[in-house]
Amino acid sequence: MVTGTIWRWLLQPQGGVNVLPTLFGLPPLSFPWLTTRAQTLVFDWNQLPFYTALVVGLVLLYLAWSALREGERRRLLWSLASAGVLLLWAFTLGRGLKLLPYPETHGFSLALVGVILAAVWQMSGYTMALYLAGLRGIPVEVLEAARVDGASEWQLFRRVVFPMLAPITLSAMIVLGHIALKIFDLIFAMAGLDYAPTDVPAIYMYLLAFRGNQFAKGAAIGILLLLLVALVVVPYLASQLRKEVRR
């Protein structure tokens, strides 16, 4: 809540960050930050089947390319055939498929940019602490051996440090991912509950359950949030437990 209040003051349309250029003799910025209703990356959700088939087809083409490099003929033929069918369907029937009888346009709300800046600032210290612990856990002997073998500083970070920090990176992604999925307090403090451009599932759940007295719908949204967080956390926990059993 304190972070959200501070950043709400910093992102005032008539002050805060917008007046920083005046310190250097430049005109102030005019971006309204948390009050804007502008959107970017706007597209019609009726085109979702087309984009889904296109993305999956491109992934299958990448798998075919990797199978070609590895000489796996069966996987190459299967990937090429599947990619061809999906891409053919996407550019023929997928273009004309409509999920709804009317256009349903949505995009990324630019009002969330301020929330993202505040969230990055808030969690950067935690992430830095994780990486500091990971860096302290790298044996000095490994780094010295790489230097003796002629590794440059860039090669040292690329081939030794970064791979050994992979578990820390995965842990940070898991923790920050589940926090982002159920974010509530930051948006509550910065933009309030009634501003539609910054609406997220947790805000919508609160409005339905505690303002609209629709507790069944609020509980359903809470269950969906639980499942989304479980999709992120459970595979990570399962892999960690599997590693501990092997040890």
Index terms:
MetI-like fold; globular; 247 residues; two-stranded antiparallel ribbon; single chain; 4% strand; 2 strands; mainly alpha
CATH fold name of the domain at 110-247: MetI-like fold
Give me the number of helical elements: 11
Q: Give the ordered list of helices and strands.
A: HEHHHEHHHHHHH
CATH class of the domain at 110-247: Mainly Alpha
Q: Name the beta content range.
A: under 5%
Mean pLDDT, as a whole number?
A: 87
Shape descriptor = globular
Strand order of the largest sheet: 1-2
Under CATH, the homologous superfamily of the domain at 110-247 reads MetI-like
What does this structure look like?
The structure is a single chain. With 247 residues, the chain is mainly alpha-helical. It has a domain of 138 residues: MetI-like (MetI-like fold), CATH 1.10.3720. A two-stranded antiparallel ribbon has the order 1-2. The protein is globular and about 55 Å long. The model has no long low-confidence stretch (mean pLDDT 87).
Write the layout of secondary structure elements.
Blueprint: H1 2-10, E1 39-44, H2 48-70, H3 73-91, H4 93-96, E2 105-109, H5 112-136, H6 140-148, H7 153-164, H8 166-181, H9 185-190, H10 201-211, H11 215-246
Antiparallel strand pairs: 1-2
